[in-house]
Amino acid sequence: MEQSVASRFQIFRARLKRYRAHFAVVFLVAAALAAACSGSGPVATVFGGAAVVLLIGVGTASGYREYRKRQLLSRRWVLSFLKARGLDPEEDADGDVLFLLDNMKYVLHIKEHYFELHIGFGRKRSELNDELMTRMAQEVMSSTRMVKILLRPEAVLFSIECLQCRKSEFAGFFDSYIRILKFSVAEHTRRYNEALEEFHRELRRQREAEYLSQRFSDYQGKDVVN
């Protein structure tokens, strides 16, 4: 019973703290009206002026909060932004925004304070060298700083995660995000192909060395006729 009373008191205090500005406005307005009804002396003027000033302050703060809220990134705004760019976006069952750009599908995942922009490519695990893929991914992530590369059995994912949550920031940097992702994909592909070619050259050198060593051991102890 004591815990119940205490919890109710905490809830009451939280609500009182949350709405104290509203209570103050109501009190001042009531006081101003009472003073105005009792006369038009200096007391009425003071209370009336205080009420008006506080009402203006609360209204300004409320308007500013509403303005800031409208500037925040949202799926609805992102869809309209991408449509204006001619990208024909769509929303999937998970609430992510999908759009196609230069024959590559991007996935935009929007959260409360940040967003994630992904691009992925299917892969067959048997066709790629996992060790080289991982090493090249680490090199590209170290050089670009902004991009994460995830190697999964069925796909390779490139993503940018950003704390920007305002519409103006997203619109201003959107093209840069796309360029960075494209560069990361191209750079990872280039480095992997070069590393894979070097890996194959090294394998060929090892095989040639093993072949020559085997030939040399076969001739040891035998008479060679020129």
Topology:
Elements: H1 2-18, H2 20-38, H3 42-71, H4 75-84, E1 90-91, E2 97-101, E3 104-110, E4 115-122, H5 130-144, E5 147-151, E6 155-162, H6 167-219
Antiparallel strand pairs: 1-2, 2-3, 3-4, 4-6, 5-6
Helix pairs in contact: 2-3, 5-6
Radius of gyration: 34 Å
- Tally the beta strands: 6
Let me know the average pLDDT.
75
Give a short account of the largest sheet: 6 strands, antiparallel
List segments where confidence is low: pLDDT < 50 over at least 5 consecutive residues: 63-68
Shape: elongated
* Coarse structural class: alpha+beta
User: What is the helix tally?
Assistant: 6
Topology as a string of helices (H) and strands (E): HHHHEEEEHEEH
Task: Give the proportion of residues in helices.
Answer: 55-70%
Distance between the termini: 109 Å
Strand content: 15-25%
Strand order of the largest sheet: 1-2-3-4-6-5
